[in-house]
Amino acid sequence: MTTWYVRPDTSHSTTRNGMSYATAWGGWSAIVWGGAGVIAGDTLYVCGTHAITSSIVVGNHGATVNNRVTISGGYAADRGSIIASADGGVFLQVPRNYTSITNLTITAKKSFCIYLYAAASITGVTIEGCVLNGGSASIISLDYTNNVIHTDLTIRNNDFIGGSGSNLGSAISWIGAASGAPLTMLNRVSVINNRFIGCSSARAVIEMWIQPGANLGTKMTDIVASGNTFISCSAVAMEIYSEIYGRNSGIRITDNIIRNQKMMGTLGGGFAIGGFSPSTTDGFGANVIARNKGYGLSGVTGMINVFYGTYRVYDNVGEDITTSTIDGTGILFDHKCDSSVAYGNKFSRLMGVPGVYYSGNGITILDATNIEVYGNVIEDAYCGIHFGNKEAGQSSNIHNNTFIRCSMAVDVSTAADKTSNFVRNNIFTAAGAVTSVRVSGGIWTGESNNAFSGFGSSLGHAISTTSVTANPELDADYRPRSTVLVRKGTYLGGRDFNGKHFYNPPNIGAVDDVTVTPRYALTQS
Questions:
Q1: 3-state secondary structure 190-201
Q2: DSSP letters along 70-96, please?
Q3: 3-state secondary structure of 239
């Protein structure tokens, strides 16, 4: 395991064998790959500032899964950087398996910083600890030509800064293209603990998109995006998406933070996720979107869109969500989303378009079936729940949530299913004497046992006789204190996943109306 060095030019020494900083190779073209040079297990330090006018390529080093090659800018005495100083396709090309690119600063001009291109499958690449300054294309671009599979790709703890002009992903970009229908895949890709600052593109910051009409064998499996931070970027933070149910399998979007995400046209917001059935890999677990936080999101995506798959969405926080047209929702279930659940989420200040009650919703159910939503707190939504257009089917059970200061509680559109969408045991408080429930084109039978406080009349719907209009007297923890709402039912023992106790009849709202029940106290004593 040898350590090698390369410096920008030949001025440092007449002896340049690459074996020390003093005798470093002079320029990228002087690097010896394989044989008597960089081989499996070695480290190559890139020292100083390398201004490049054409692309540079990682050569054939023969690394293996247990003997990687590391190309690092982390030599303490002379940190390494690469700057594209010419227009056109000028970038660092990484076509070799088991290559780690670490601690480099790379500045693009008109193209990528890093291009994972081999015209063949690439396995085990890691990009870690780098500062990547974008130009007018994606900062990291993944090859998507025919028969290319990216496996065990890790992008971790990097700074993605700036960049604009990409038609796809400003920071990370891969597509399954419709044109030519190449067969390409992503398999076990992790994007972890990166920082994205001021990245701008036409679609997303992180783009992994299988286009309509793509090769049916093109897919994504076991995608992880966790612990990333997005600051003042544009378009959607993540679009990891295809339009066929279950084409992909396995996704986990967790612990990401988004601040001041701007619109590009009408696109913008948090997470647009589609096409994922559960992973078939042992230990990967369910498809999860959890513990993410978004502050100041602009665009139709709102906080979370889940499509063409099955997902668990929990413990997310979103604040100050706006849209100029439609949607801009806390959570949108659509496009054949099936058997999904959302719980423990909190969304505040969803500012829809005045008069457009299918915007600024806490929860939107469109073409989705078997959806369960419970234990969520939603404040200052333009409309608490919207049931909209559907294709083949639509069904949901929305229960035990708390909606505070809505401009409308529930909107049921003409095309919505009037018999299979249930809204029960929820608390709604009004932003004024506004409409509680609006039902268009038919009789909706799914509303019961709710509290509607401070609203005016309903439209097209007679509020269930089991519902009440009492002020819930919510405390600072959203716990109802009204004697009308504190349930007198029998505590059955046990709690749901979100910690809510089971009663018969059930209690109301997102939060228990008592902190400790007599039976709970007895069993814990």
A1: EEECCEEECCCE
A2: EEES--TTS-EEEEE-SSSS--EE--S
A3: strand
136 contacts 91 by C-beta, under 8 angstroms: no
CB neighbour list of residue 347: distance below 8 Å, 6 or more residues apart: 303, 317, 318, 319, 321, 330, 331, 362, 376, 377, 378, 379, 381
Q: Is 90 exposed, middle or buried (0-12, 13-18, 19+ CB in 10 A)?
A: buried
Q: Would you give the DSSP letter of residue 331?
A: E
Element (H, E) at 132: strand 131-134
Give the three-class secondary structure for 185: strand
Neighbours of 484 (CB within 10 A): 13
Residues 6+ apart with CB under 8 A from 127: 100, 101, 102, 114, 140, 154, 155, 156, 158
Other C-beta atoms closer than 10 Å to the C-beta of 514 total 16
Chain mean position to CA 345: 15
Spell out the residues 6+ positions from residue 356 whose beta carbon is closer than 8 angstroms to its own.
325, 326
**Across the strands, what pairs with 332?**
305, 364
The torsion angles phi and psi of 521, rounded to 5 degrees, stand at -60, -40
For the chain of 525 residues, list the mean pLDDT of each consecutive stretch of 10: 96 94 97 96 98 97 97 98 94 98 97 93 98 96 95 99 87 95 97 98 95 96 99 96 95 99 90 97 97 97 97 98 93 96 97 90 96 96 94 91 96 95 96 94 95 95 95 91 81 68 78 60 48
Predicted structure pTM score: 0.93
The terminus-to-terminus CA distance of the chain in angstroms comes to 61
Separation CA 73–CA 439 (nearest Å): 62
If 0-12 CB within 10 Å is exposed, 13-18 middle and 19+ buried, where does residue 483 land? exposed
Cα 386 to Cα 153: distance, rounded to the nearest angstrom: 39
* Residue 306 structure tokens: 């889940």
